[in-house]
Amino acid sequence: MSIISKDISQAVAILNNEELVAIPTETVYGLAGNIYSEKAITSIFETKRRPLFNPLIVHIPNLEYMESVVRYIPQKARLLAETFWPGSLTLVLPKKNNIPDVITAGKDTVAVRVPNHPVTLALLKQLNFPLAAPSANPFNRISPTKAEHVASYFEGEIQMVLDGGSCKNGIESTIVGFEGDEPVIYRLGSIALETIEEVVGKVKVKNKKEASPNAPGMLNKHYAPRTLTVLSNDIYSDIERYLNKKIGVLSFSTSYKNDFIKSQITLSENGNLAEATSNLYNALHKLDTQNLDVIIAEIFPNIGLGKSINDRLLRAASR
Ligand code: TXA
Ligand code: MG
How would you classify the pairing of strands 131-132 and 57-59? Predict the structure, then answer.
């Protein structure tokens, strides 16, 4: 029997029992557990094979709940929360003492967000604790955007994937921390940098493992397919480098014609960045199961969500 189910009350029962449920959000699926249960939190780290020094995001049901998790809210943090919650914005703020150290990896700050998915909002309202939830993929693998992706990773290891369909936005939330009272982007994501700046003015970007598209070798591998993945500014000339190989192409809006291309996914035929973002991980999951020798991925225009996509492609690219 499949672990995929739409039964919210079953999810409530499992979570109350200090066990894990994979939950849908508008960004990616999360692997969720009670933030106050040491058993559940330990099990999140073990199931994901995630190192303990990497802290978790706390998912809360509404903006008001933020007061019970964080002890100080800068004005610009409140403004961002009011503008984007429920939604794909994670705020990193000074934590209250009741937040266990395992959640924050011993840091004095906690990451918090209100996800924008009707199923998970309904679930959170039926629980008397928030949910810690990292993306529901094994450490360093591609984040899941469908219940089936999660099941293929964790069937036999978790009891349930709460099915909420395909994740609308398709990449992880944008993470904003604070230096003093000024916002700093810690991770580019589902809400474009420019959209954040429309609300709070110019923002510093300290994206972890940041690098320019010319320097993929600098990056730690992350969000990665198993297939060799290379980034390209010129698909046709990169195909020349892999003649006689089984080539997959991941492109923005262009459909490339070449006999050596065995498989090709175009993320948005109309050149719509939001649509491309929404399809990105599912496309990587698909290409990764086709026994290709190489995935050649087109670098995106470096504006708006294109920046966030380039960040994920860089992390997916092989050294
Ligand atoms: O869209 C998302 O954010 C998804 C869904 C499930 O909500 N979650 C997600 O979680 O992407 P995860 O664990 O894969 O990524 C969370 C990131 C990690 O890179 C972690 O280092 C960072 O958030 N983080 C968590 N707490 C932090 C803190 N106190 N300070 C700095 N970074 C933090
Ligand atoms: Mg993750």
Answer: antiparallel
